[in-house]
Amino acid sequence: MHAWERRGAQAWLLRPVAALFGLLAAARRLAYARGWRRTDRLPVPVIVVGNVIAGGAGKTPVVIALVRHLQARGLPVGVISRGHGRRTRDGRAVAADSDPRDVGDEPLLIHRATGAPLVVDADRAAAGRRLLALHPEVRVIVADDGLQHLALGRDIDICVFDDRGIGNGWLLPAGPLREPWPRRCDLVLHTGERPAFAGHRGHRRLADVALDREGRKVPLASLAARDDLAAVAGIARPERFFDMLRARGLRLRTCIALPDHHDFSGWTPPPGLQLLCTEKDAAKLWPVAPTALAVPLQFDIDPAFFAALDARLSSLDGFQAA
Q1: Closest by CA position to 184, among listed 40, 35, 33
Q2: What distance in Å separates the CA atoms of residue 129 and residue 121, rounded to the nearest whole number?
Q3: What is the pLDDT of residues 281-301, one digit of tens each?
């Protein structure tokens, strides 16, 4: 919301509601801090990747990069997630052939991209216990989102920000913040090009190839001469995807922005156009638009971030890297 970028009239009108939201959130944090509400701790280290700002800040690519880093270190790692936007309510393991409507599009993308075992459940601690029961070899769990899910004990908090920073600095609904900032956080990671404050950096770019439904690669450069391209995105900030495609020299006849986690069931693609979509949308889009091409996002994180993460992980009591 553009209203969240500044402290305009609309934001000021919503300040009383934001104050109430802040009081309720503070009471909830106090209840966990005092032990009035239970925090479940899992028997392995838990790394939570999340954001304090509403809307997408590039969290999913961070989770993928983090899991791949831990795997490269030889650590058996698993992932837990709420599975936002799914139509089911039970806890369940994610498989490569899972229906994204049942497990969530982001968990399915993470699992397919990393091969790491992944369990979705609104109760993150229950998800962790199920994951460890199915995969007792797992030694580190990465929680996709959940900074505000205080019922789950965690060992490392990673806060992700994009170029919006903290917006106007006010709580929902007067501003974009889910909780006051600054808050305790082990690592801050910026996914945008203009960090608003100190932290580590990550750099997003589109892959050099698009993928069809069968996994075949189509060089992105080979699409530059075409004038029949249409881009569709059901993500938090679809304009970022469209801008990145244009930056690669692609001429987009039309751009279709849909709500985050959009369910493409019954959606009718525009006739006579070659669709380009995000990897997140692809699994739901291909059944109704089988010729669509998915353009993967590559995310490179500064080595200093991983060095700091490894040091923090190694400092945990009882944890051994090998």
Answers
A1: 33
A2: 11
A3: 999 999 999 999 999 999 999
